[in-house]
């Protein structure tokens, strides 16, 4: 799953919601 997350390139990498999702995935 982590690899998929790295492959995924969000339009807004600075989006706090995205960061929260990454932390939850970890």
Please give a structural write-up.
The chain has helices at 2-7, 16-25. It is mainly α and 26 residues long. The longest helix has 10 residues, at 16-25. The N and C termini lie close together (10 Å). The model has no long low-confidence stretch (mean pLDDT 63). Residues 1-26 are annotated as: Disordered.
Mean pLDDT comes to 63
Specify the biggest β-sheet: none
In one word, what is the shape?
A: flat
H and E string: HH
Beta content comes to under 5%
Cα distance spanning the termini: 10 Å
Number of helices: 2
Structural class: mainly alpha
Number of strands: 0
Helix content range: 55-70%
Radius of gyration: 8 Å
Low-confidence stretches: none
Question: What keywords describe this structure?
Answer:
26 residues, mainly alpha, flat
Give a short synopsis of this structure.
Residues 1-26 are annotated as: Disordered. The chain has 26 residues and is mainly alpha-helical. 62% of the residues lie in helices and 0% in strands.
Topology (SSEs and partners):
Elements (H helix, E strand, L loop, with lengths): L1 H6 L8 H10 L1
């Amino acid at each position: 799953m982590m690899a998929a997350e790295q492959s995924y390139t969000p339009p807004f990498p600075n989006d706090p919601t995205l960061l929260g999702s990454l932390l939850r995935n970890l």
